[in-house]
Amino acid sequence: MIVIEGLYKRFGDNDVLNGIELKIPDGKIYAILGPNGSGKTTLIKSVLGLVIPDKGQITVSGSPVSHQWLYRSEINYLSQIANFPGNIRVLELIRMIKDIRCQKSDEQSLIRRLKLEPFLDKKLDKLSGGTKQKVNLLLTFMFDNPILILDEPTSGLDPAALLELKDIIRVKRETGKTIIVTTHILQFVEEMADELIYLLEGDIYFKGSLSELLQKTNQADLEHAIAAITSGRHV
Ligand SMILES: Nc1ncnc2c1ncn2[C@@H]1O[C@H](COP(=O)(O)OP(=O)(O)OP(=O)(O)O)[C@@H](O)[C@H]1O
Predict the structure, then answer these.
(1) What's the number of domains the chain is made of?
(2) What domain range includes position 206?
(3) What ipTM did this prediction achieve?
(4) pLDDT band for position 127 (50/70/90)?
(5) pTM over 0.80
(6) Ligand 1 centroid distance, CA of 42 (Å)
(7) Which residue ranges traverse the bilayer (predicted)?
(8) Could you tell me if residue 124 is inside a domain?
């Protein structure tokens, strides 16, 4: 369980998180939604200890994250923009990350599923954006940890890779993992998410299932529900 209490974060005069209270129980897929700049990445980076909050407390599996780092070994994180040096080859990168994490890994089945065999000897700066994203997904999923945090995982993927990604995530959920995803792809959310967390103006506007959100906003689908929220008709 991830517990967030009274979380505040301000950048300059920009109040990004305004007293977030959130409990994320284990074993489900959570979609964090909200307009551009609403603080989704800031929230997940706070959980990861990559952003230091101004106020508030976060615990992951009972451990406070402040000034700690051991808890992070329980988390697999896919960042929105992964910046690895362009002159490293894919296989070298996989070996490097394995050496750093020192955990059992299962890269072979992911290499097959994501069809990465032809690219293993290629340097990262020679890869297309979608192939780079597949490499990032492989690095995220190859370790068997209880929490997965995925910032825009569908970015640049073709339909076949998207199907593989959804399948990989479903299998992770079946094995009891907690999966937190930020995305703007509403079809992905409708298909995959057990719970939606909607951020608006630095706070949580809604947390619950898709059907609860549709009921709350009196709309027929997620696209219209979000349009209703952002136009202020349901704040
Ligand atoms: N390191 C930083 N320094 C200054 N401002 C920042 C920093 N990181 C984020 N911000 C600002 O905080 C706000 C929230 O950014 P964040 O990336 O968390 O939003 P988001 O909901 O993930 O957006 P998007 O949907 O566009 O990815 C934005 O106004 C952004 O400019």
Answers:
(1) 1
(2) 2-81+146-230
(3) 0.98
(4) very high
(5) yes
(6) 6
(7) none
(8) no
